[in-house]
């Protein structure tokens, strides 16, 4: 279940209903998928092969298609990151820069953990959405954010796209973000 940490106050928001309500206020889609659908060998396993990635897409086909139909997503894939990922530190440095996209950034966490750091509306400032298996999030178009891993440095996520070729990170310079880490 996702938790939220507000960077400007250090306060935390916990509980699926509270988190979902806050994210809805921010225009961020949040859902929860049943991870019990996964076979035992995929639960918590972040070191998966292409066949296992295809198996995950098959298991969650109904949820993926539903989300795609509701929001215009046409393509999807599975990404797996762990200490076994070549050049993980370099990859994370690329992720850990505030940016925006011309389409939503969608992640359905299947195993492991991740954090979306999102710029909230009004006086909210930046907040961390700490995600675990089953959490699904869609950061809206033009919303300053970035994604990184938690301390375990492992995640498996389904990514959904309107157009994967057009899903490009555009840097977002924000003096408000400096010092909020």
UniProtKB/TrEMBL annotation:
<dbReference type="Pfam" id="PF03079">
    <property type="entry name" value="ARD"/>
</dbReference>
<dbReference type="InterPro" id="IPR014710">
    <property type="entry name" value="RmlC-like_jellyroll"/>
</dbReference>
<dbReference type="InterPro" id="IPR023956">
    <property type="entry name" value="ARD_bac"/>
</dbReference>
<feature type="binding site">
    <location>
        <position position="99"/>
    </location>
    <ligand>
        <name>Fe(2+)</name>
    </ligand>
</feature>
<feature type="site" description="Important to generate the dianion">
    <location>
        <position position="107"/>
    </location>
</feature>
<keyword id="KW-0533">Nickel</keyword>
<feature type="binding site">
    <location>
        <position position="101"/>
    </location>
    <ligand>
        <name>Fe(2+)</name>
    </ligand>
</feature>
<protein>
    <recommendedName>
        <fullName>Acireductone dioxygenase</fullName>
        <ecNumber>1.13.11.54</ecNumber>
        <ecNumber>1.13.11.53</ecNumber>
    </recommendedName>
</protein>
<feature type="binding site">
    <location>
        <position position="101"/>
    </location>
    <ligand>
        <name>Ni(2+)</name>
    </ligand>
</feature>
<feature type="binding site">
    <location>
        <position position="105"/>
    </location>
    <ligand>
        <name>Fe(2+)</name>
    </ligand>
</feature>
<comment type="similarity">
    <text>Belongs to the acireductone dioxygenase (ARD) family.</text>
</comment>
<feature type="binding site">
    <location>
        <position position="145"/>
    </location>
    <ligand>
        <name>Ni(2+)</name>
    </ligand>
</feature>
<feature type="binding site">
    <location>
        <position position="105"/>
    </location>
    <ligand>
        <name>Ni(2+)</name>
    </ligand>
</feature>
<feature type="site" description="May play a role in transmitting local conformational changes">
    <location>
        <position position="104"/>
    </location>
</feature>
<keyword id="KW-0560">Oxidoreductase</keyword>
<keyword id="KW-0223">Dioxygenase</keyword>
<keyword id="KW-0479">Metal-binding</keyword>
<feature type="binding site">
    <location>
        <position position="145"/>
    </location>
    <ligand>
        <name>Fe(2+)</name>
    </ligand>
</feature>
<keyword id="KW-0028">Amino-acid biosynthesis</keyword>
<keyword id="KW-0408">Iron</keyword>
<feature type="binding site">
    <location>
        <position position="99"/>
    </location>
    <ligand>
        <name>Ni(2+)</name>
    </ligand>
</feature>
<dbReference type="InterPro" id="IPR011051">
    <property type="entry name" value="RmlC_Cupin_sf"/>
</dbReference>
<comment type="function">
    <text>Catalyzes 2 different reactions between oxygene and the acireductone 1,2-dihydroxy-3-keto-5-methylthiopentene (DHK-MTPene) depending upon the metal bound in the active site. Fe-containing acireductone dioxygenase (Fe-ARD) produces formate and 2-keto-4-methylthiobutyrate (KMTB), the alpha-ketoacid precursor of methionine in the methionine recycle pathway. Ni-containing acireductone dioxygenase (Ni-ARD) produces methylthiopropionate, carbon monoxide and formate, and does not lie on the methionine recycle pathway.</text>
</comment>
<comment type="subunit">
    <text>Monomer.</text>
</comment>
<dbReference type="InterPro" id="IPR004313">
    <property type="entry name" value="ARD"/>
</dbReference>
<comment type="pathway">
    <text>Amino-acid biosynthesis; L-methionine biosynthesis via salvage pathway; L-methionine from S-methyl-5-thio-alpha-D-ribose 1-phosphate: step 5/6.</text>
</comment>
<keyword id="KW-0486">Methionine biosynthesis</keyword>
<dbReference type="GO" id="GO:0051213">
    <property type="term" value="F:dioxygenase activity"/>
</dbReference>
